[in-house]
Design brief:
single chain, mainly beta, 11-stranded antiparallel beta sheet, 3 helices
């Protein structure tokens, strides 16, 4: 029985990096999304496979953190991912990003996915979706992951973004990586600091032409907290620990 694990090497390109040549947070999500999609397709539950069953994948929560350093432009990375045993509704998946040359662990993370019914756009149990193979017993996150960050919502809006064509994916909603690009653009050259840990919860889908208003505050632990709203309905939450 095959082990449920996917590994691949990638080279970091300039368009994945910030103005300091460090890998951007949204690019980490892009790497996670790419390898998860490839692995799901190899397991016969990729986008087309699932769509033919009347479903599609949606990520509900992601966290990732720097273990040793943030990758930089032209680094060669070795990425690994593996799914955990499915819950009642959630499919959790872990990730590790290594320096391909030194084998140092650079970043670790986990995501929480659900299956959405294409007809009613609601979460489905989708009992027929179940990976076949030998699960990896290793875990960096033994506890079940959350769906919400429960951030405060009584802070003034400090930034707005209109969802545009460049933001949406084949599910016809804003791609998960684009939310962190909004947060990135709230900084300035002078205020920008490198990230150490990021958590993001996706509460409600954003679709083209939606206006997202974002509030920002710093909590007592010096963590930057962001919350986005569409017509006063919360659509995402982000917590970022910066260097």
């Amino acid at each position: 029985m095959a082990i449920l694990k996917k590994e691949m090497n990638v080279n970091i390109q300039s368009n994945q990096c910030d103005f300091k040549d460090y890998l951007k947070p949204s690019s980490v999500l892009g790497l996670f999304q790419d390898i998860a999609g490839i692995h799901a397709s190899e397991l016969n539950y990729g986008f087309d496979d699932l769509y033919n069953l009347g479903y599609y994948w949606v990520v509900m929560y992601i966290q990732f953190e720097v273990v040793s350093r943030i990758p930089k432009f032209n680094d060669t990375l070795h990425i690994e991912t593996w799914p955990k045993r499915r819950g009642r509704l959630e499919f959790e998946r872990e990730y590790e990003i290594y320096d391909a040359n030194t084998n140092d662990l650079l970043i670790k993370g986990i995501s929480n996915w659900v299956v959405i019914d294409t007809k009613n756009r609601l979460i489905s149990k989708a009992q027929e979706v179940n990976f076949s193979g030998e699960y990896v017993e290793k875990t960096n996150y033994p506890l079940k992951q959350k769906r919400k960050l429960n951030l405060e919502d009584n802070h003034e809006k400090s930034y707005s973004h209109t969802v545009c064509l460049n933001d949406i994916d084949h599910n016809m909603h804003m791609n998960n990586s684009k939310y962190l690009d909004i947060i990135y653009n709230m900084d300035t050259v002078d205020s920008y600091k490198l990230w150490k840990k990021i958590e993001i919860a996706f509460l409600h889908e954003a679709r083209i032409d939606d206006m997202i208003d974002i509030s920002h505050y710093i909590d007592i632990d010096n963590v930057h907290c962001y919350k986005g709203f569409i017509n006063d309905i919360a659509c995402f939450e982000v917590k970022i620990t910066k260097e």
